[in-house]
């Protein structure tokens, strides 16, 4: 949702109703907006009724802190395989490049490749990217850094 201070008063689309609760001026529908772990989360509460919106906001904010037990046990290998599966519809060259990056990553991670994701330290990902950086052009480095396995580990080159 755009910050209210960024818009002229005649163009405000959302009105803050309560903490984390906003109402769209034209439609009257309510939205939740909350900052979690440094990221802004927005969620339509699917109603124009304030009482229902407040209940749904409470449910939504409580669900933000929950971690699914099965997801918590995901290994790095499972995460990478899931990513590869979601990219099956991409161009063949893109898939080849992604597979090459993953092969390099798997080789450098060794036994840690089969660890649970929660046990992998960001510094391990930083070390991998740093080891690959000298041989990569900026755009290729950005492809490496843009994969979910390296997300948050590096800044793009360019």
Please give the radius of gyration in angstroms. 21 Å
* DSSP summary, beta strand count: 4
Mean pLDDT: 83
Which shape, going by the Cα principal axes? elongated
Percent range of helical residues: 40-55%
Structural class: alpha+beta
Q: How many structural domains in the coordinates?
A: 2
Biggest sheet, spatial arrangement of strands:
1-2-3-4
How many separate helices?
6
Low-confidence stretches: 4-10, 152-156
What's the order of the H and E elements?
Answer: EEEEHHHHHH
- Percent strand equals 5-15%
Main beta sheet, described? 4 strands, antiparallel
For the terminal residues, how far apart are their CA atoms? 30 Å
Concise account of the structure shown:
Helix content is 43%, strand content 14%. The protein has 158 residues and is α+β, with helices and mostly antiparallel strands. Strand 3 (30-36) and strand 4 form a beta hairpin.
Structure description:
- The protein is of the alpha+beta class.
- The protein has two domains: 4-66, Double Stranded RNA Binding Domain; 72-150.
- Helices cover 43% and strands 14% of the residues.
- It has helices at residues 50-64, 69-72, 76-86, 92-109, 122-132, 138-146, and strands spanning 14-18, 21-24, 30-36, 39-44.
- It has a four-stranded antiparallel β-sheet, covered by helices on one side.
- Strand 2 (21-24) and strand 3 (30-36) form a beta hairpin.
- The longest helix is centred in the middle third of the chain and has 18 residues, at 92-109.
- The two termini are 30 Å apart.
